[in-house]
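During the no-cost extension, the postdoctoral fellow (Dr. R.K.) reprocessed legacy sequence entries with the updated structure-token encoder. One reprocessed record is reproduced below for audit purposes.
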Amino acid sequence: MLPRETLLKSIENRETAARVLDQAEQAIKTWEIVCTDFVSPPELAEIQQMFSRLTEVHILPWGGYPQAERQRVAIARADLPLDQSQVAIAAIDIAGNFLFDPASHRDFLGALLGTGIVREKVGDILVMGERGAQAIVVPEMVEFLSMSLAQVRSVPVKTQAIDLSELKIREPKKKELTTVEASLRLDAVASAGFGMSRSKMADLINAGDVRVNWKEITQSSHQLKSGDLVAIRGKGRLEVGDVAVTKKERYRVQLTRFV
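Re-encoded structure tokens follow.
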């Protein structure tokens, strides 16, 4: 049996984490590869944290393409190999004419959930402007959605299965920048990276809108380090690169902003 209470001690998303531990125990017992439903980035970060402490099992997350936010996690005994083909995912195309009634990510997600399926069965949704969207889902939902999803907003749509190779992936735009700061405080570095005032950044941090490595951080004084990922709801992500100390004992920080 896995040391559940120890593993779950500092976990925010306890319900998801406990369910994944149940699946890990199943994988150990049956020698089968077990797949979770889709998990969000904060949930995935906690799952990876838990499994880094275990030697009996290993995991492989995959969401259909390299930058996927929502991913399924394959779990297997440590002595069984894992590859992406063992993470069962499928893709659908939701096609319609959205020229006169544009639909957002929220609209497509609402229409998918309106068919009666739960959020965990849906991965990323790729909105393609006036022609509709593509969605990554668990394979067992493809036929149901092909029959059930017929409208998004006021627009009739045709929903059908497509191959993962047909996904229209847009590479994230990124901007490299360097800042020199007196400290590695979250409010100082992130305000420079996102191009906003330090007081505005502090407000976002206090409001719970800022995550570091997918964990909500509400302290402006939180110290960043090389490799950290800062995400702000609706504003993209910032990756902390190399950090060097200048002659004047300030910090020169390389940053990459993803929009």
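The mean pLDDT is 93. The domain at 90-166 is CATH 3.30.70.330 (Alpha-Beta Plaits). The remaining legacy entries will be reprocessed before the final report is submitted.
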